Amino acid sequence: MNILKHKDQFFLFSLEVKSDILNAMDFVKRLALGLGFNRKEALHLQLVVEELCTNAFDHTDRCSMKVLKIEKVEDQKGITLTLYTEGELYSLNPPKETDNKGPRGRGLKLILSLVDFAEVKAEGSFIKTQLMKKRSQKH
Prior knowledge:
CATH class: Alpha Beta
Number of strands: 6
Helix content: 25-40%
CATH superfamily: Histidine kinase-like ATPase, C-terminal domain
Strand content: 25-35%
CATH topology: Heat Shock Protein 90
Strand order of the largest sheet: 1-2-3-4-6-5
CATH architecture: 2-Layer Sandwich
Number of helices: 3
Oligomer: single chain
């Protein structure tokens, strides 16, 4: 995983191989704890990063670009995860007939249950998946 850009409010990572996902998970955990997320929330953010990035590797061409932007959201006391990939637009709400069939296919449901905002849209030649998690008020 290469850090492409680092600013005070955001970090851009190039995901080149699946093992880069572990580095992104570790980074988001450290950032979340530093921003005051509790350990359970930090773990949830790690799961979201794992599912989001694993889906990118599993459902796009292995040579296609994958860039993860991790951004602090000061006013809402949260973290935004934005993944840019090459590939086809997909829905965050899979059809009902895919529910609980086989050993896979629960990742999007998990992601949606752990974040406060989720959106997928085409942006130029890329697919932009944006997720946001607010920090709880309880500490």
